Every structure is written in structure tokens, then in C-alpha cells.
């Protein structure tokens, strides 16, 4: 299910970005793009970008796949967490306390490592996995029902934390991830936990909000490559009208990706392939794209 959900749309985005980079980029920039494509398709682009320079430096604007670092962390979490959870269940019925303990350990490690290697604390899975573990905590807490007024308070407080993060976090002054990452993570967790049973959820459960939520993965995939290629063409000087056009284009491309790739491939109802067959076919397509990307990476962007 995770392969059907994530990989086809990711593969389409990488192929489209690779072709666009081949047409537009200089050989040096295309070489970098080729390397990031190989790592992104192997689920390890967070390591690739960690070994390079910072996320928001000037060179980030020629990295169309920079945003895939977080998807790589997600994929690594899907591999690591079930194994950890398996051994936790072998010990006894301690899933919740063990998950809480690991979340705290991860958060403390992230704070300490931030002072040692801020780029590593940002990109590497051991220092971001505790943010995913909040989702595991929500799952384990859902069986405990609380009073409706407490539900409302939890959702409202969670929403306030998320809005605070959006409004007041500043790249120039906010130390991130560290403790700052806990603010939106806790906020989102409280909203998810309380959301189904609170009156405050109406604005975010409206038709418009849910439709945006449905295409959110496609929005995530297309937003950064579109910004990179547009900035590359206009030398990072995008006008106000251009910004509006880019915003509209992002939704248009996201709807297209969702309609043509993401939605059809994630459904098993009309699929002619079984789960293992689909996984094997996806792996074959990925291998072909990786082979081509590795070629242009090894040959200096086919200069």
C-alpha cells in the first residue's frame, strides 16, 4: 500500500524534473540533479543533501529534488519502526510507554546534535524520527476517550501551535529542528487526536480543505521543482504576477499528477497486478531511471 501510495507519483515527478533539468540546466547543475535523482529513487536523498551544503543556501535553488529528503526520512521510518515495534511487543504490553520513551530520547538527541552538526540534525533520520513517532503515540492513545470539552481544548491548542509555527518561525532566528520542531509536531498530533470529535475542526473539514488535503502529496511533490525551474529561468527574480502564476501552476500540476498518476495507481480495485507484481514492476521502472541518472551523474552531466 505504501508503494502504491508514494512511488508512482514520486517516479513521475523525478522523470519530469530530470527531463526539464536536461533541457534547461548547465552540465554542472544537471550532474548534481542526476545524483539527487539516484539517491531520491533509492530512498536516501536526505543523506545526499546532508553531504552537500545547507538547505536554504543559494545553491538550493538549483536542486529540484531537495524536498525529497523528507520523503526519504519517511521511507526509512517505514522500514525501521515496524522492526522496533516487533521487538517491543516481544517484551510485553509496553507499546505506549516504550514509544513515549523513544520519542523523548529522539527529541533530546536532536537538540544535542543540533549544536554539533545542524545540517545532520535537519536531514538525518535518527534526529527526525521522533517527529514521526508522535503519529504512533496518537494511534496508541486513540482508544482512550476524553471529555468533549477537553477534546475541543486539545484541538484548539494544537491549531494554535501550528499557526504559531507558520507565523513566527523565522529561518534567520529560529533554531531548527531542535525544540522548535516539537511545536508543530505536537500541534498536529493534538489536532489529529481530537479532530474527529470537535466543533473547532469545521474550517479544516470543509470541502475546500479536504480537497486540498486529497492532493497534498502531489502538491508536496511538484511545488519545489516548479519553483526551482522558474527561478532558474528568471534568475531568481520572480515578479508578483509571476508568483501568483507559480502558485496557480502548482495547483494545476498537482491536480494533474493526482488525477493521472497518484489516484489511479494507489487504487487496488482496478489493478491487474497483485501487490508483489506491482512492487516488482515499480522496482523495474525505478531501476531504469536510476541507471540513466547514474550515467549522466558519472559522465559530468553529459557535458
Description of the molecule:
It is a single chain. The protein is mainly alpha-helical and 303 residues long. Helices cover 73% and strands 0% of the residues. It has helices at 2-24, 27-41, 45-51, 68-91, 95-116, 118-123, 129-141, 148-168, 182-194, 207-214, 216-233, 240-266, 275-298. Helix 1 crosses helix 12 (240-266), helix 1 (2-24) packs parallel to helix 13 (275-298) and helix 11 crosses helix 12 (240-266). It is globular, with a radius of gyration of 21 Å. It starts with a helix and ends in a 5-residue tail after the last helix.
Largest sheet: none
Return the structural class. mainly alpha
Average of pLDDT: 92
* Distance N to C terminus: 40 Å
Low-confidence residue ranges: none
Rg, Cα atoms, Å: 21 Å
Please state roughly what percent of the residues sit in beta strands, choosing from under 5%, 5-15%, 15-25%, 25-35%, 35-45% or over 45%: under 5%
Query: From N to C, what is the helix and strand string?
Result: HHHHHHHHHHHHH
Descriptive labels:
globular; 13 helices; mainly alpha; about 300 residues; about 0% strand
Amino acid at each position: 500500500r505504501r508503494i502504491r501510495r508514494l512511488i508512482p507519483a514520486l517516479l513521475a515527478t523525478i522523470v519530469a524534473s530530470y527531463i526539464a533539468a536536461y533541457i534547461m540546466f548547465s552540465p554542472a547543475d544537471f550532474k548534481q540533479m542526476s545524483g539527487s535523482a539516484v539517491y531520491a529513487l533509492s530512498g536516501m536523498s536526505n543523506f545526499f543533501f546532508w553531504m552537500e551544503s545547507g538547505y536554504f543556501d543559494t545553491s538550493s535553488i538549483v536542486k529540484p529534488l531537495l524536498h525529497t529528503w523528507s520523503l526519504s526520512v519517511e521511507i526509512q521510518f517505514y522500514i525501521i519502526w515496524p522492526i522496533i515495534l516487533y521487538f517491543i511487543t516481544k517484551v510485553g504490553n509496553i507499546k505506549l510507554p516504550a514509544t513515549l520513551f523513544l520519542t523523548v530520547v529522539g527529541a533530546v538527541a536532536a537538540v544535542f546534535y543540533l549544536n554539533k552538526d545542524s545540517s545532520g540534525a535537519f536531514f538525518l533520520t535518527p534526529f527526525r524520527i521522533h517527529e514521526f513517532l508522535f503519529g504512533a503515540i496518537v494511534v496508541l492513545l486513540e482508544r482512550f476517550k476524553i471529555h468533549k470539552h477537553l477534546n475541543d481544548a486539545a484541538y484548539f491548542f494544537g491549531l494554535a501551535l501550528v499557526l504559531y509555527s507558520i507565523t513566527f518561525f523565522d529561518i534567520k532566528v529560529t533554531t531548527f529542528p531542535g525544540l522548535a520542531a516539537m511545536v508543530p509536531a505536537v500541534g498536529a498530533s493534538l489536532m489529529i487526536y481530537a479532530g474527529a470529535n470537535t466543533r473547532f475542526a469545521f474550517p479544516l473539514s470543509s470541502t475546500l480543505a479536504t480537497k486540498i488535503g486529497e492532493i497534498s502529496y502531489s502538491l508536496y511533490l511538484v511545488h519545489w521543482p516548479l519553483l526551482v525551474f522558474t527561478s532558474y529561468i528568471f534568475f531568481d527574480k520572480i515578479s508578483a504576477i509571476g508568483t501568483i502564476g507559480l502558485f496557480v501552476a502548482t495547483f494545476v500540476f498537482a491536480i494533474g499528477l493526482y488525477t493521472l498518476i497518484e489516484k489511479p495507481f494507489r487504487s487496488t480495485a482496478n489493478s491487474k497486478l497483485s501487490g508483489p507484481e506491482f512492487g516488482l514492476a515499480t522496482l523495474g521502472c525505478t531501476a531504469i531511471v536510476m541507471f540513466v541518472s547514474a550515467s549522466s551523474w558519472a559522465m559530468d552531466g553529459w557535458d
